[in-house]
Design brief:
about 70 residues; mainly beta; about 0% helix; globular
Length: about 70
């Protein structure tokens, strides 16, 4: 269950979604992403995001970067 205002950190593949972007989640499903910059270097690549759920299915992203495996 997702609660508006909750902080989330997820991994998946960053994809274009209409005029914006979405995260195709590793655990299934997707999040629409509200981002303050355009992450063109990460499109169609594995990423890790963190942010706040601001609406059903929408995350206000504060960090986005490559997903690096834990050693």
């Amino acid at each position: 269950m997702t609660v508006i205002g909750s902080r989330v950190e997820e991994t998946g593949t960053l994809i274009r979604d209409g005029g914006g972007f979405a995260l195709r989640r590793d655990i299934g499903g997707r999040w629409k992403l509200d981002m303050h910059r355009v992450p063109v270097d990460h499109v169609e690549k594995r990423v890790r995001i963190s942010g706040i759920i601001v609406a059903q299915g929408l995350i206000d992203v504060d960090t986005l970067g490559p997903d690096r495996p834990l050693n």
